[in-house]
Amino acid sequence: MTPVEHLLTIMVRLRDPDRGCPWDVEQTFDTIAPYTLEEAYEVVDAIERRDVAALKDELGDLLLQVVFHARMASEAGLFDFDDVARSIADKLVRRHPHVFGDAEQRDSARQTLEWEQTKHAERRERALARPPDTNESSLDSALDDVPLALPALKRAAKMQKRVAAQGFQWSDPRDALAKVREELEELTGEFEDLTEKNRLEDELGDVLFAVVALGRTLDVDAETALRRATAKFERRYRRLEGLIAADGVGNGGASLETLLAAWARVKAEETAPGVDDREPQPDAAGRSE
Length: 289
Hints:
Layout: H1 3-14, H2 22-26, H3 29-48, H4 52-75, H5 81-94, H6 97-100, H7 108-128, H8 152-164, H9 173-189, H10 197-217, H11 222-246, H12 256-270
Helix pairs in contact: 1-4, 3-4, 8-10, 9-10, 11-12
C-alpha cells in the first residue's frame, strides 16, 4: 500500500458513520473550507520562514484537506480522489503543449501568455456549457471564476492579470504611479468630512487597487510585499518594546514621542553599515542560518 493509499484508507475509516470519528463524520464542504484556507496560509508561512521541516508537515495538512473533500464528494457520488488527480494531470498536459505536445519550445513570457489564452478558452467553454436556466450569463468574461474567498490584494491582482491579458493595463510604471497619486488626491479630498465612511472606504479602496496595479507593472506582488512589510513592522516593534522596557517604561506607558524615538533607534540599528536586514535562508538541512 502506498502512502497515499494509506491516507485514503484512513479517511474512509474516519468518515465511517458507525466506527469513525464523530467530528469527521459531521463535517461538510462548508465546514471544512475554512480549514482548507487556513492550511494553505500555513504552507505559505512555512515557506516564508524557510522552515523546511514545517513545510513538510504543512503540505501534509493541506493534502489532508484535498483527501477530506474528495472523500465527501465520493460519498455523495460526485467524484473521488482519483478523479481529482486525473483532472489536474489532464489540465497540466493540456496547458503544456510545448512539453507534452508538438508545440515548439518558447521562452517563459510566451508560455505564460499561451497559458492564459488556454485558461480563457476553458472558461469560455464552461460559460457556453452552462444550462440556460441558471442565473449566470453564458457570455464568457475575463473575470469569470476569480474566487471571492481570495485575500483582497490577491484577488485584485488576479483580476488585473486577467484584464491585462486583453491589453487593459499600464505599460509604463510611471503611469501606474501617477494613478496612485491621483487616487491619493481623491482620498485627501474626502478629509473635509471624515464622517463619510462609505466615501472614505471607496477612495481608500481605489488607492489600494491602484497600488496593486503599480506593483504589477514593477513585477512586484502586492500581497507578498505587504506580508514582508508587516513582518518587518513586527520585528521592529518587538525590538522597540525591548528598548523601552530596558529604559524602565512598561507596555502602554510610553508617550508617542518616546515610541517614535525608540522606533528611530530601531531603524538606525537595522540600517547601520554591515547589518544584513534580509530574511535568513535555510542551509542544506533546512535550518535557518
